[in-house]
């Protein structure tokens, strides 16, 4: 505005076209949103379809060939039973491995090998873990086709790398000064880990483990491989009960040709599964947020 | 404590600083730049320039007239706003969200903060060399050609332009056989000269240098210093440095910023270093300050 | 008597050592898992190859484990996997890369705080749900919108769903790589009068290339191993594909490796027959492919981490 000197070129220093700039920005924004919007549309569809089908009767009945009587209870209970078992197995093993890698292991060849191996295990297809479960737990250990234990052990191995990696991050985030303070008071390594490192890292470890359990509850392919029955009518009553799970039941129903199943019962099952998943993830986020507020 | 006393005693004389400066015609200033005729035409001019980062004031009421085709050094203790001033000239401060600029900064008479100024177009007339060498992870050739490509000046013989720029940056001899090697493979001093070549390849009017030798060893530093003096034959060079000897060696004019982003004194370099007007500047130059 | 006692406390030392080895065991379990996977797959696969020659398996162009004439050529299944991989790559790679650029270069902190968790949700939805979506929503929608003859089970919907699922994998790893590009390079580019578009495409993306490459490989590996989406929506028609005929590739039913495994797994095949054992042969093939890809991705990624450390 205040430009006044005579020799100034009228147009300042020229203009560089921003057409490409603006177009690219919009393209990138559109790309960022396209997946989110698609998923939102699909979720909206399934929620609308589930209306009228997702009711108390659906949640408390066993499956039935008649869509109006079909229920989800055995699958729901089966999923939760498997998940609790998985938590019992993965939590100590995952934390133990993470403690070793972060607190004990040197930066040697073996450690790097273990680390690379864990990263690689996290990328092995879940269906391959299913074959491992089939060969190891069903075959070698003879736990039985499709039992609660076989299902839990198989999926536990699948999510273990994720639990280890997130627990390592939580342990790494504990400031070194805390360890030094503990050592300075004459504490041993184990005392330091138990009294200083683990308490401080625990919320992070919990968050990571619970998020991994969310992943576990959606797993289907490993269950198919260990021959978990797609449809179970009773509730599991022992570790060796044959068990179905929500995703497995959904998979089974999705192949039914009737519209009542495809756009009704399955939709109700999907919404139930997603609500359980959302609950699990919310718990993880609540733990994380509470922890963040304290520090 | 001491700062406060100084500031209070120094607020008004700043205004008359530019006044004694003009040495009538082009002849008085040329002691350092090798005798060729320099005009004292003002190319860059700040008027009441204030910069804030959020609540914090980084420059306060800066008035300065920087002459064309000379080396102007900007010195001062760390945090005095000298880098901020440099980044005002080519509007690099636009990239900092919290930065706010008030007042005028004229380039060739045109206020670069006018609404009709495109900062991208502005930066094409003003090259910049940064504190640490920052070559792109590309070949030496592509590093120098980058600016040409960006500015659409890559028609014709790019290779010739690249070589000219490297030549002018006194680097050609050392890298002639390895133009396709990565710029990151060069030594620190060579990397910085590569960055200078990159800045001058598109032939800007002004070159801004933000402590260009601070990350380099003495030998590399002296090469850069020689280079800067040569560059002033064709370009207007504004260099920020915390090294006073360097400013004394290579610059024609020196601006001294002290705490609070205040330009305390601006004059011929000889004058600043031999007989500064202000006691604060003398204290700073002689090391009593900061 | 006056000398203080600095000697070791035997019990405490023993306990410390015990815990050390206990934790080490947990860490070694991961190696044990890998060994177990390889042994499980290998032992049964060897049984399988005792009945079906390896060459027939690797070069056969017909897959029919239960229906006469029985054939165990894996190539049709690999073709099926290839179709899904190509299709999902066409969705996820460009979208994921653009997303990473947007998040790293354009988005404000506020936008990022919303967009990143929202994108992570894409990877968190159970794949069985995606498979169901592909079958009952996406396929009918495409059939209505596009003037194409789409089969009920087809590679197109499955590819799109797999693609959407792996977007966050591409975008988050690529964004990490872009964020690791030093700001000084962006400044250098702006200083030369570059626009944001030029800075993003000619400085940031090239400098982050190895990270981007690593994200691509990892995402493709995930697409290759993806099971439920293809098992539900892509069909069970093992067939060789013709790369010059995209319509034939995508509009009809196919069968990737994972889907074939599910088919055998849900069937009533048990015992020691080659049909059951073929599960492990296909599984081994899948494991080797994804393992090699994950390894490459990891090695490439560790290289870019070193460059800017």
TrEMBL record, chain A:
Sample GO molecular function, one term: phosphate transmembrane transporter activity
One CC-aspect GO term: plasma membrane
Keyword Transport: yes
Annotated GO biological process: phosphate ion transmembrane transport
Entry-linked Pfam families: BPD_transp_1
Annotated localization: Cell membrane
Record PROSITE patterns: ABC_TM1
Bilayer-spanning residue ranges: 26-52, 72-101, 113-137, 143-165, 261-287
Recorded topology in the membrane: Multi-pass membrane protein
Domain of life: Archaea
Keywords: Cell membrane, Membrane, Transmembrane, Transmembrane helix, Transport
Domain ABC transmembrane type-1: 76-284
Family from the record: Belongs to the binding-protein-dependent transport system permease family. CysTW subfamily.
PANTHER family registered for this protein in UniProt: PHOSPHATE TRANSPORT SYSTEM PERMEASE PROTEIN PSTA, PHOSPHATE TRANSPORT SYSTEM PERMEASE PROTEIN PSTA-RELATED
Protein name: Phosphate transport system permease protein PstA
Species lineage: Archaea, Methanobacteriati, Methanobacteriota, Stenosarchaea group, Halobacteria
Gene that this polypeptide is encoded by: pstA
From TrEMBL, chain B:
InterPro entries on file: AAA+_ATPase (IPR003593), ABC_transporter-like_ATP-bd (IPR003439), ABC_transporter-like_CS (IPR017871), P-loop_NTPase (IPR027417), PstB-like (IPR005670)
SMART domains: AAA
GO cellular component: membrane
Pfam families, sorted: ABC_tran
Region annotated Disordered, chain positions: 1-41
Keyword terms, alphabetized: ATP-binding, Cell membrane, Membrane, Nucleotide-binding, Transport
Database matches in PROSITE patterns: ABC_TRANSPORTER_1, ABC_TRANSPORTER_2
Any one Gene Ontology molecular-function term assigned to this protein's record: ATP binding
Alphabetized NCBIfam families for the sequence: 3a0107s01c2 (TIGR00972)
Protein name: Phosphate ABC transporter ATP-binding protein PstB
Species this chain originates from: Natrinema thermotolerans
Taxonomic lineage from the root: Archaea, Methanobacteriati, Methanobacteriota, Stenosarchaea group, Halobacteria
Automatic annotation (TrEMBL), chain C:
GO biological process, one term: phosphate ion transport
UniProt keyword Transport, yes or no: yes
Domain (ABC transmembrane type-1): residue spans on this chain: 78-297
Top-level taxon of origin: Archaea
An annotated Gene Ontology molecular function: phosphate transmembrane transporter activity
Keyword Magnesium among record annotations: no
UniProt-annotated location(s): Cell membrane; Membrane
Membrane topology value: Multi-pass membrane protein
Protein name: Phosphate transport system permease protein
Highest classification ranks of the organism: Archaea, Methanobacteriati, Methanobacteriota, Stenosarchaea group, Halobacteria
Gene behind the chain: pstC
């Amino acid at each position: 505005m205040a430009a006044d000197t005579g020799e100034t070129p009228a147009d300042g220093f020229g203009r560089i076209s921003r057409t490409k700039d603006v177009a690219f920005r919009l393209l990138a924004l559109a790309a960022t949103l396209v997946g989110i919007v698609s998923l939102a549309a699909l979720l909206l569809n399934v929620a609308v379809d589930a209306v009228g089908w997702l009711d108390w009767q659906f949640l408390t009945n066993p499956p039935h060939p008649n869509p109006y009587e079909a229920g989800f209870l055995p699958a729901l209970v089966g999923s939760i039973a498997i998940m609790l078992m998985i938590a019992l197995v993965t939590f100590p093993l995952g934390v133990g491995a993470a403690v070793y890698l972060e607190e004990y292991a040197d930066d040697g060849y073996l450690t790097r090998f273990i680390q690379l191996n864990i990263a690689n295990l996290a990328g092995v297809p879940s269906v391959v873990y299913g074959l491992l479960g089939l060969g190891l737990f069903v075959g070698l250990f003879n736990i039985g086709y499709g039992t609660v234990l076989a299902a839990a052990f198989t999926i536990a191995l699948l999510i273990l790398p994720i639990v280890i990696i997130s627990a390592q991050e939580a342990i790494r985030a504990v400031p070194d000064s805390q360890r030094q303070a503990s050592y300075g008071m004459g504490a041993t390594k184990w005392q330091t880990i138990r009294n200083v490192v683990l308490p401080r890292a625990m919320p992070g470890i919990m968050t990571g483990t619970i998020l991994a359990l969310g992943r576990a509850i959606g797993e289907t392919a490993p269950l198919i491989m260990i021959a978990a029955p797609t449809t179970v009518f009773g509730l599991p009553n022992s570790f060796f009960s044959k068990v179905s799970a929500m995703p497995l039941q959904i998979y089974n129903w999705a192949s039914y040709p009737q519209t009542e199943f495809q756009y009704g019962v399955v939709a109700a099952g999907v919404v139930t599964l997603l609500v359980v998943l959302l609950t699990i993830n919310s718990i993880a986020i609540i733990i994380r947020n509470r922890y963040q507020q304290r520090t | 404590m001491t700062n406060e006393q100084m500031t209070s005693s120094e607020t008004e004389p700043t205004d008359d600083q530019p006044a004694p400066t003009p040495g009538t015609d082009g002849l008085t200033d040329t002691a350092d730049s090798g005798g060729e005729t320099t005009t004292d035409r003002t190319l860059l001019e700040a008027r009441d320039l204030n910069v804030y980062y959020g609540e914090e004031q980084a420059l306060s009421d800066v008035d300065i007239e920087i002459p064309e085709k000379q080396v102007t050094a900007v010195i001062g203790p760390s945090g005095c706003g000298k880098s901020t001033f440099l980044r005002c000239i080519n509007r690099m401060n636009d990239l900092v969200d919290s930065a706010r600029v008030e007042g005028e900064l004229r380039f060739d008479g045109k206020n670069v903060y006018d609404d009709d100024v495109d900062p991208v177009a502005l930066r094409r007339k003003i090259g910049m060399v940064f504190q640490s060498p920052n070559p792109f992870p590309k070949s030496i050739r592509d590093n120098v050609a980058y600016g040409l490509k960006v500015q659409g000046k890559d028609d014709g013989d790019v290779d010739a332009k690249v070589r000219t720029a490297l030549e002018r940056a006194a680097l050609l001899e050392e890298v002639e056989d390895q133009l396709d090697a990565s710029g990151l493979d060069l030594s620190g001093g060579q990397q910085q000269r590569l960055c200078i070549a990159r800045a001058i390849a598109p032939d800007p009017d002004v070159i801004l240098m933000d402590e260009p030798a601070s990350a380099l060893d003495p030998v590399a530093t002296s090469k850069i210093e020689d280079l800067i003096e040569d560059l002033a034959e064709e370009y207007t060079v504004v260099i920020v440095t915390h090294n006073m000897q360097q400013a004394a060696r290579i610059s024609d004019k020196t601006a001294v910023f002290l705490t609070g982003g205040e330009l305390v004194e601006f004059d011929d370099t000889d004058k600043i270093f031999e007989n500064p007007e202000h006691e604060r500047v003398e204290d700073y130059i002689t090391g009593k300050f900061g | 008597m006056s000398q203080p006692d600095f000697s070791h406390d035997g019990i405490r030392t023993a306990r410390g050592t015990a815990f050390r080895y206990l934790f080490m065991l947990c860490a070694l379990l991961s190696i044990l898992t890998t060994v177990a996977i390889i042994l499980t797959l290998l032992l049964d696969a060897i049984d399988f190859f005792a009945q079906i020659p390896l060459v027939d398996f690797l070069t056969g162009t017909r897959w029919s484990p239960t229906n006469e004439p029985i054939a165990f050529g894996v190539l049709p299944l690999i073709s099926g996997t290839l179709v899904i991989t190509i299709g999902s790559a066409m969705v996820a790679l460009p979208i994921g890369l653009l997303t990473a650029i947007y998040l790293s270069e354009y988005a404000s902190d506020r936008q990022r705080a919303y967009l990143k968790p929202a994108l992570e949700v894409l990877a968190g939805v159970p794949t069985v749900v995606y498979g169901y979506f592909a079958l009952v929503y996406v396929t009918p929608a495409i059939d209505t919108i596009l003037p194409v003859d789409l089969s009920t089970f087809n590679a197109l919907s499955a590819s799109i769903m797999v693609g959407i699922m792996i977007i966050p994998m591409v975008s988050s790893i690529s964004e990490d790589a872009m964020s690791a590009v030093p700001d000084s390079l962006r400044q250098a580019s702006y200083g030369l009068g570059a626009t944001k578009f030029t800075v993003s495409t000619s400085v940031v993306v090239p400098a982050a290339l190895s990270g981007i490459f690593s994200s691509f490989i990892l995402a493709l590996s995930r697409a290759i191993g993806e099971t439920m989406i293809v098992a539900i929506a892509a069909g069970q028609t093992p067939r060789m594909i013709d790369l010059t005929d995209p319509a034939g590739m995508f509009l009809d039913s196919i069968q990737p490796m994972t889907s074939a495994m599910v088919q055998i797994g849900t069937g009533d095949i048990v015992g020691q027959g080659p049909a059951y054992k073929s599960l492990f042969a296909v599984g081994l093939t899948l494991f080797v492919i994804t393992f090699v890809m994950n390894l490459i991705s990891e090695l490439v990624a560790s290289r870019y981490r070193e460059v800017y450390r």
